[in-house]
Structures are given as C-alpha cells and as structure tokens.
C-alpha cells in the first residue's frame, strides 16, 4: 500500500505500519483471487491425463509430479487465504492419503463461483448458508450412489482390492496402473492383519533402486536394506538374529579410566585381555544360536574379526526407524549392550542375502512365515524423479488400501459421480426458496469442474462431453463417465473405474469447509512484524500453526 497512511480512523488505533484490508472488494475478492490462483495450479494436474508440475523448493530440490499434496507442500504459499486451502489439502492427505487435488481444485471452483454471486450482489453469509445446504445434500446423494453390495469386501481378495485402487493409482501414473496396482495389492495383502481395521501403512516400504524399468519391480516379503553386509558372509538361510542397538564394538567393554603400566609384559597382557573379552562376548552371542548380528551403530574391527571367526553375518542399520522395522520383521528384541542374548530376544529370518541390483548392493531380508510383518516394494526406474513419482503412486495405493479396509463402499469413477451430484443438487436448488437457491445452484455447477478438467487435460472437447454426460444421466443411467482413451462417454462398470466413497466424501467436505472459511472473512488485519521482515519471510501472525 504505497501511500502514506492517514493518522485517523482505524489506523490511529493500531500500531504504525499495520495493513488493514476490509470490505468486499479489498478482503473477500482478494482472498478469493489468491485461492483461485492456487487451484489453477493443481487443477491442470487432476486426473489420469493431468500434467506434471516442476517445483523447485527453497533447498533447490527438484520435484516433478502431479501429486497435488506434494505440489502445495513444496510451494511456499504465503497468502493467508490460500493457506486455508493448502491446509484442507493436507488434512485430506493425512486422513485418506488421496484426493488432495480434488479438495483444492473443488474449493477453488466453489470460491470462483462465489465471486460471481458476490458480484451479482449476494451477501457472503447467504452464499455460505447455500453452500452448507449444498454440501449436506451432496453427502445425502453420495450415499445413494454407492454401488450395491460393495460394503462387504474381502480385503485379501486381490481383484476386489485392485478394482478399488486402480483409480487412485491411475491418476498418478496413467498407463502403468495395472502393474503398480498388482504390486501394491500383493504387498498390502501380505501385511494385512487379521482385523483389517488395524492395517498400518508403515508396514509397506518402498525401496527405490536406480536402473532397469518399472517392469523389473517386485515385492519382497520382508525388508530391503540399502547397504551391504559388513563382513564377508553374504548370505545365510533360516537363521536366528540378534539385534544390538548400541553397536558391536570394544568400547562396550572398556571403562574410562587411567591405567598405569610399568612393564612391557603388562602392556601385552592388557591388550590380550581386551581381545579375550571381545571374543568372549561374540562367542556368547554365537553360542546362543544366533547366526546374524544386526548392529545399530559402528562395528569395531576387532569385533568384526571374531564375528568372522565364528561365522556370524553382520549387518549394520544406522537408522533408528529402520532398526525398529527390522525388529518388527524378524520378531527380535533389540538389546542395548553387547551381552549374551536370551533365546526369547532372538528373531528369526528365512534368508538374508546380499544381492546386486543395478550396481547397488542391497541386503534382502526375507521372512515368509511371520504373518503380518512387513513387505517391501522394490521399485526400479530410470531417473530419480520417476522413482519419486512412482513412490507417490504407491503411497496413494497403500493409503487407499487402508481407507478401503475401514470403509469399502465405492461410487462410480471417471466423473460419473460428479455429474450425477451436479444434476441432483441442481434439482434440489429449484425447490429452495430464498436467496441461497442461487448459491446452491452454483454449488452444483462447481461439480462440473471435474469432468471439464478431466476432459480438458485429455485434450477432449469439454462442452460436448459434459452435455452428453448430462443427457445420459438425465435418462437414468447414473453410471456413465468419461472414457479417456476413446474420448467418449461410457458406463464405468464396464471400464471398471471406481472411486472410494470415503475419499470423495472427505474431499468434498473439506473443500466446502475451506471455501466457507474463506468466505467468512471480511477484514484482514496484518500487524507489522518486529524489526521489519526479511524478504521472503511471512509477516508475523501469518505463519502456519
């Protein structure tokens, strides 16, 4: 605000240097504009034909992805209103793990329509009340659209899992969804516990190894560690495992202290006793039946020498989390210091082997029997960015699996649901009296964004497709959606494209909430940060919570 601030009015009440925006024009429309900008970014990467974005964050890390959650996380969104949308997207990512793009794009669309209503002369509170009625009606209709018989599903059945997961993965990696889905479904089914509600996303790991192609990827029951075994023993089968957190080293036996040594013999004996002590410890471990030692820290030279002598395989896992997962996989109990382990504390592995994949040495720890331990998807790809993007697709797949384990109801995909919602909510708006009927009608129109965007991203004629979708739905076929490949409208049950009911529900709910939150703002008061802001920092009071 380049001009000199007057010293009367609200300015005189606040400290010097405050920014104060109020009224429709300054606050509401500016906020809506910022949100529209954000949703324009995410919108073009919605759906299977979505474009990728190249985001370079402040640490110079490069992201090439069409995963909206990643994009908005890496963009440093500064505008406080646009931040609300980002938070809605994040909430969706945390809750369901997929559908962040729908949330942000839909909220942006709702706000854009709200802007038209405001210019027509509606008051924001009427729009909010209309939108609230709209979202309630939407939830009602969404429940009616659920496919019959989809409530009960067998989470161990690969076909059923894939049919529900396909849409989520296809929107990230179009054209490769069948292969990826079968990988993810295998991995998830292996680790799914007796009660599927307790499925833990963390139990499906992804190991990214450069080289090869997607078709060289596979699923391993157990873990893949990106490091070589320390000693010379490279593979071992059906063995007991001892896990030491503190590292296998002589320092475990040394106490700090000053030793006065008078003669050479004493010196030799001193060294010998240390050696004997280490040998004794390693022998104790070997005697307990363990064949593999896993260390959480460095492995000393001398200790390694004795491990070799007793034919023990030594692995080093430096990350705490990896170590915990290793214990989960093998059922071992991690011990703090080197000592003879109890038989109960030992874990079991079917095989540990060092394999060379694409020039990188990896240790594969397999555990077939231990029911729901951990499985790893080994991804192969030609560049880092491709691998990162594949990982995101798998992440979405796993999260979708978790969501379907909780609630397996499905609704038609490929924008069939959205068109039906638009039609039904529009009808509902005609029954309303009062000014909020306009808002409900706009709410219904906002759903058209999905088929419109999907067809535009696929390079099809959006208007034609939307009108033919409406025509089909009006004649009672509620399952007609867009077939991307042929550019026509088809019944989704023949194409087998389904979306999870729960994903849609939360995405639309969060979007409507976010839009209403933005519309409720009518004044923005920014305080001046102490000591003046450095460039590129957020003004105080605007930082994330």
Question: Which stretches of 5+ consecutive residues score pLDDT under 50?
Answer: 539-545
Instruction: Give the helix/strand class.
Output: alpha/beta
> How is the biggest beta sheet arranged?
9 strands, mixed
Architecture (CATH level 2) name of the largest domain: Orthogonal Bundle
Gyration radius, in Å:
30 Å
CATH superfamily of the largest domain: GroEL-like equatorial domain
Kindly state the percentage of residues in helix. 40-55%
Shape: elongated
The total count of helices amounts to 18
CA(first)-CA(last) distance: 27 Å
Oligomer: single chain
CATH fold-type name of the largest domain: GROEL, domain 1
For the record, the count of structural domains works out to 3
Number of strands: 17
Can you give a write-up of this model?
The structure is a single chain. The chain folds into three domains: 11-148 and 412-526, Orthogonal Bundle (GROEL, domain 1), CATH 1.10.560.10; 153-219 and 376-408, TCP-1-like chaperonin intermediate domain (GROEL, domain 2, 2-Layer Sandwich); 222-253 and 264-371, 3-Layer(bba) Sandwich (GroEL), CATH 3.50.7. It has helices at residues 10-13, 23-43, 68-74, 80-95, 100-120, 124-144, 158-170, 177-191, 264-287, 301-309, 320-330, 384-406, 416-431, 436-446, 449-457, 462-474, 492-495, 501-519; strands spanning 19-22, 53-56, 62-65, 204-210, 218-225, 235-244, 290-295, 313-316, 334-335, 347-357, 360-366, 375-381, 410-412, 480-483, 488-491, 498-500, 523-526. The strands form five sheets. Strands 4, 5, 6, 7, 8, 9, 10, 11 and 12 form a nine-stranded mixed beta sheet that branches. A two-stranded antiparallel ribbon has the order 1-17. A two-stranded antiparallel sheet has the order 2-3. 47% of the residues lie in helices and 17% in strands. The chain is of the alpha/beta class and 545 residues long. Mean pLDDT is 84; it is low at 539-545. Strand 10 and strand 11 (360-366) form a beta hairpin.
